[in-house]
Write a structure and sequence with these properties.
The protein is of the alpha+beta class and about 650 residues long. The protein is about 15% helix and about 40% strand. The relative contact order is 0.10.
């Protein structure tokens, strides 16, 4: 049962400026310390607004030239005069209806709000492992935002995992290029999140939260070690792209501004998560800074696993009918899901009469019969569709699907990050919530907090995931071990794990209809513990899962939401060992890159008592034959230490159930 409500307990201790937590040293300089005093934000308001961040007494970033340029107004943040200031120490306990890391999140920070002449404010927050800021304007009329400015300087010797983009029209499916910052050429740009490392090894992840009625932020290289803010312009005209008219667009006319919006509003948070590798993975800061849930009731939002068709091209076998986009094939998917406690199946591209006619199914598929058959077996259906046909009538089309008995929609190929597209996401979330429909945004920008405001937005793509196995060698173990420190920090990701054909690079064959994954079988299974998504795909063919029932039974025991998360070992791009709790049971996952590794993991984090232990690990021949694994069943307790032996590209998973 998912608990209702977004915040169940709030403890706020307010301290007015005269009783400030951190005293102002001069009229133009303000210091803000984290609750544990390990992080200090020093804010200056001279001719321009800037701040620096020290973590454990070492400078990690400098942010300069913070301003908001409005049409017909003085630029906010230039030659600014502070009218008054307000400080607070805040501690909240947030309950997450769909908890990807923790069912209860402690949101503790120090806050400074500076009110300037000119009807605007800047709010800063300092956390134990991060900081954030945002503009707040209090203007009566609507405004046109020409640009928002800021420049981040990471200092000499910094390195980055750089998600380079070629266009501001993007589906955010990037490889993270590890490089020295000073080698990135000027005017190269990237989407977010951006992860960097200082010379002393402190990691800084930059992204945004609470994005509403405003474009996504990109970063453009501007100096030796610095980046400037970059935004898509407000779009005035688009035309279909030849050859992809149903889904792709060409922007033919843009405005000279980035947003038209209300003058009385809060702007998106710009946030920095700061600390060790493990701190980055454990952070929920994007969620904490987002708008609390607008939904009064969330019990109907059910996380679960989902049998997916598109990755495996409906290649089922051992049946007496021809597989494909037809009723018989999807009944087979439903049977498989029902037999294994999988709550959903998806009908991906091809189910509808056409990609633009999404109000009826193709002639070989009976939606009513599939919904009836699925309901009888406890399996619900999610439908794939392109964003543009839905845009024509969001309430009407979603209401039609609700009448059919559909559980939710997977919306694809947005591939834009401008203000109008951000508003499209919000409109879909609102209308779907009214009808109690789930939403999976594919071909999407990274999460920015909408999944807290509307928890029915259950997951997002915006990640280079398993589908790339169909046409590339890109999805390497190293890539998989970069994602938990980068893209996944922003929010749930529909990576679509579950490949039952596994290979090392030397024998990895690219096949669109019969793809295989890079890394060992156990590396693939470990994704179900390590990768976060309340809707988690099983990408391979049900026929293959039925041939691999040991693995299938193991995978389908793993939850999709968690009460507690602990990172036990972590190094970005190299390895990760993680433990997650669901109720009284614990689930542990480990992955490595192409380097074989061994760990010894004490179980002292367990409560007292005996646990039934199911363990799946790389087999003795997994370095040569990636599908080799060993399944062990025993018992254990908190006094034991587990040996984790990982083959090249390997993985390891433990399920510990309280006796």
């Amino acid at each position: 049962m998912i608990m209702n409500g977004d915040i169940f307990m709030k403890m706020v201790l307010l301290t007015i400026a005269t009783m400030a937590i951190s005293l102002t040293s001069t009229a133009q300089e303000y210091k803000l310390k984290s609750p544990d005093n390990q992080l200090t934000v020093t804010i200056k308001t001279d001719d321009m607004i800037s701040f620096s961040v020290d973590y454990k007494d070492a400078n990690v970033i400098d942010v300069n030239g913070i301003s908001l340029e409005l049409e017909g107004e003085e630029e906010l943040g230039i030659s600014s005069k502070v009218k008054n200031k307000y400080r607070a120490s805040v501690k909240e306990l947030i309950e997450a209806p769909l908890s990807t890391k923790s069912s209860v999140i402690t949101d503790e920070y120090s806050m400074l709000k500076l009110k300037f002449r000119g009807n605007y404010e800047l709010e800063f927050r300092a956390y134990n492992h991060g900081c954030s800021y945002r503009f707040i304007t209090t203007m009566k009329n609507d405004i046109v935002v020409q640009s928002e400015k800021m420049s981040i300087d990471y200092g000499n010797g910094a390195t980055a995992w750089f998600p380079e983009e070629e266009s501001l029209m993007s589906h955010y499916e990037r490889l993270y290029i590890y490089t020295d910052l000073n080698t990135i050429r000027k005017e190269k740009f990237c989407s977010l999140p951006l992860l960097t490392s200082s010379t002393n090894g402190v990691k800084v992840l930059f992204t945004e939260s609470d994005l509403d009625d405003y474009p996504n932020l990109f970063l453009e290289k501007s100096g030796v070690n610095s980046f400037d803010a970059l935004f898509p312009k407000y779009i005035l005209e688009v035309v279909p792209r030849p050859g992809g008219e149903d889904r792709d667009e060409v922007i033919t006319k843009e405005a000279d501004y980035i947003a038209k919006t209300k003058g009385n509003r809060s702007f998106p948070w710009r946030l920095f998560i700061i600390g060790e590798d493990s701190d980055i993975v454990e952070s929920s800061l994007v969620y904490q800074l987002a708008t609390p849930s607008k939904l009064d009731h969330t019990d109907w939002i059910e996380p679960g696993q989902i049998a997916w068709d598109w990755y495996n091209a409906n290649n089922i076998y051992g049946v007496d009918f021809e597989s494909g986009l037809n009723t018989e094939t999807y009944k087979y998917f439903i049977d498989f899901a029902s037999e294994n406690g999988i709550g959903y199946i998806i009908l991906d591209e091809g189910w509808s009469k056409s990609t633009t006619d999404i109000g009826a199914s193709n002639d070989t598929l009976d939606i009513d019969e599939l919904v009836r058959y699925g309901n009888d077996k406890g399996v619900r259906i999610i439908l794939w569709l392109l964003w543009k046909p839905l845009y024509q009538d969001i309430p009407g089309i979603l209401a039609l699907y609700k009448d059919w008995g559909i559980a939710g929609v997977k919306i694809d190929f947005m591939q834009r990050a401008d203000q109008q597209m951000v508003n499209y996401y919000k409109n879909v979330a609102v209308e779907a919530a009214k009808l109690e429909l789930l939403v999976d945004f594919h071909g999407a920008y990274k999460p920015t907090g909408l999944h807290r405001e509307y928890p029915n937005v259950i997951t997002f793509e915006g990640v280079k995931g398993n589908e790339n196995n169909k046409w590339s060698h890109d999805i390497t173990p190293e890539h998989n071990l970069t994602l938990p420190f980068t893209r996944m920090v922003a929010g749930p990701m529909d990576y679509t794990p579950g490949a039952m054909s596994n290979a090392h690079l030397i024998n990895h064959m690219i096949s669109f209809e019969r793809p295989s994954g890079l890394g060992t079988r156990c590396h693939e299974i470990a994704k179900y513990v390590i990768f976060e998504s309340p809707l988690q795909m099983l990408c391979d063919s049900p026929s293959r899962y039925r041939k691999e029932m040991e693995c299938t039974r193991f995978i389908t025991q793993i939850p999709q939401v968690w009460d507690e998360t602990r990172v036990l070992e972590a190094k970005v791009s190299d390895y990760l060992v993680i433990a997650r709790r669901s109720g009284n049971d614990w689930y542990m996952g480990a992955m490595t890159d192409w380097t074989a590794r061994n760990f010894e993991i004490p179980l002292d984090f367990l409560p007292d008592g005996k646990y039934d232990l199911q363990l799946i690990q790389d087999g003795v021949n997994a370095n040569k034959f990636a599908e080799d694994y060993k399944l062990i069943h025993t018992s254990t307790d908190k006094n034991e230490t587990l040996k984790v032996n990982l083959a090249s590209g390997g993985g390891w998973v433990a399920i510990l159930k309280r006796k």
